[in-house]
Give the backbone structure.
Amino acid sequence: MADPFYITTAIHYPNGRPHIGHAYETIAADVLARFHRLRGREVRFQTGTDEHGLKMAQKARDLETTPRQLADEMSGYFRALFDDLDISYDRFIRTTEAEHHRASQEMWRRMEATGDLYLDRYEGWYSVRDEAYYDESELTDWEGGEKLSPQGTPVEWTVEESWFFRLSAYQDRLLTLYRDNPGFIRPESRRNEILRFVEGGLRDLSISRTSFDWGVRVPGDESHVMYVWVDALTNYLTGLGFPDETGDMLKFWPADVHLIGKDITRFHTVYWPAFLLSAGLAVPRQVFAHGFLLNRGQKESKSLGNVTDPGALARQYGVDVLRYFLLREFSFGQDGSYSAEAIINRANAELANSFGNLAQRVLSFIAKNCGGRIEAGALPGDADRALRERVHRVCAVELPGQFEELAFAAGLEAWMQAVYACNAYVDEQAPWALRKTDPERMARVLATLCDCIRMLAIAISPVIPKSCAKILDALSIPAEDRSFAALDTNSAHGVIMVDSPTPVFPRLEVGGGGTP
Ligand code: ME8
């Protein structure tokens, strides 16, 4: 039976339209989901929207609408964007779903049954933008006596009756978890940050609110709604049918990886495992915090007028170009800065001029000059074997090894080097010259190249699925032979049928798009 793999993104606040950070995280998760499917695993991939909390309530009030209407409208934009970006999610969850309320209330009851909840009064700082409580010592002074959170957001002094979770009792268990599972928090820089935070001591956490009612009701105390992060984190269980612990819960929990941005590491690696331990559930295997994307070095914001619609970027440059760029350009886990020129340069140099050109010149040559059919009679020579071995090693070993570690840029760098090697081989072997002098040798060269293009396309198909499907269609590769397991078959020995390909990666111009 296939080995199950459960991957989630953070669920996004639908208090506005999706931005490039949302697209980045969801594309990366999609690449990983597709990659593991092609490796033969049974994948469950979940994304969605986080619809409760003060931030949603306040935004709705500002817009003179209801939080429900705001959530309905904005959640639709997220879903539409993810469909446009070819995100292959299995479940798009919305936290306003009745099932999710049931799951969150069950989590609450379990934590209460363990004796970890008590009623008290919260007096302290809260950031609505981060939906986070902060200790005084974490804040910095700002103009006019105001204070700012470590994320640079405003905080307000909050006093209200609240249920508390005994987080302080979990310090040792959390430190043991981090020590026993060094891969639980990645990358290393985030792990160190969290270790320092937890070693410094934990205070009990306020987990309910009484000053507004847009949230999941606290079971048995209807005047409280849950703190939004209690319900938000529970989404990862709701999607598997929790509280039913048979079926998908049994198959997919604990999650293999929660993919999140670096700003929400504390919620996922401190609060979430503590809630799970309290509720008697297993903790996720890994939380991976990626970096932040900046627009020409600056954070996108309405006041700077530099907010980019990721859907517009995809329409302008192509979905696969955007997907490739985002994973290739930045080291996953670190921050990155993007610009139109960077997207265009990367797409032209690597997709259009290298991989696209390789596929185009080889396949159209066969379609035009060999009637779309080649059968290599001559035995492979050293150069043919060396190229095939190299491309096979990159596609079957190096790229997968890097992707397993979420080192996408390094995996794609190895892949690109293999593409360059193929282009160098075309130039050296010059099949167009062999056509007159040695047709048998020409057939061997072309068959080797078709086999290499097949491997390169399969290996990178999690990143650029539509483009690879076109190339594999042109090579007449059946759907069932488009997996990593199929890389071990050498297709250069049989008859290869080739359809005339349509150009897959148009050259992009600065100031314009491509003509797909
Ligand atoms: O934090 N670059 O939602 P969110 C890269 N609802 N990633 C970015 C980014 C940027 N510029 N800006 C945000 C929330 N992100 C909560 C999560 S999970 C149980 C609840 C990432 O809409 C951010 O780090 O503010 C997070 O992982 C995701 O986008 C959603 O952010």
